[in-house]
Amino acid sequence: MTEERSDLHHILLARNKEWSEQMLRENPAMFTELAKHQTPFFLWIGCSDSRVPPNQITGTVPGDMFIHRNIANMVVHTDMNMLSVLDFGVNVLNIDHIIICGHYGCGGVKAAMGPEFDGAAANWVREIRDVSRIHHDELAAITDDQARYDRLVELNVAEQAYDLSRTSVLRDAWASGRKMQVHGWVYGLHNGLIKDLGVTRTEYGDEAGAVPLR
Ligand code: CO
Predict the structure, then answer these.
(1) Of 76, 108, 127, 212, which residue is least crowded by CB atoms under 10 Å?
(2) In a domain, 188, yes or no
(3) Catalytic residue among 9, 10, 15, 51
(4) Could you report the per-residue pLDDT of 5-15, keeping only the tens digit for each?
(5) How many domains are contained in the chain?
């Protein structure tokens, strides 16, 4: 993008027109079909990072994915935005596959590894400090800073997959016999490849580690 910054938004509108025309040339019925309904197969929960556009990196097109993004791909149980997307995706759109996709080089995770800072995002990434605390022993044993940062990115995705598996929406879906799957992936900014962390959740998460009343 080489235009003056104050005019940048015009580029988007011009490119949208080109894109729309190109799509119509390739598939004249595309928009009329898409306008009727949406039947996506995947719910994507990813980072807001501009370098991780879900459709592009998965080769998917409009209509394929229901998408929720926030800083550091977090699943926060009091986040009505996330819960609404999850409820709609699972119970109205009937999506069975949910993907939590983090990425190496995530600024949100990095911020949570550094000193305390000001601003709203500090509160948001606060929960990643908890992930770091839960996995203190493993992380503390990694002496290389980059490797520890990469590992926290992975552990954060795994914890968000766990947190998602503990939502009432998924508990009810599994209880009703739905074959829900929550996948944990990490995207590499450096090579454009997605790594499946192998932390897929297929049942309501247990409370291992918690100490209940007896
Ligand atoms: Co990020």
Answers:
(1) 212
(2) yes
(3) 51
(4) 788 999 999 99
(5) 2
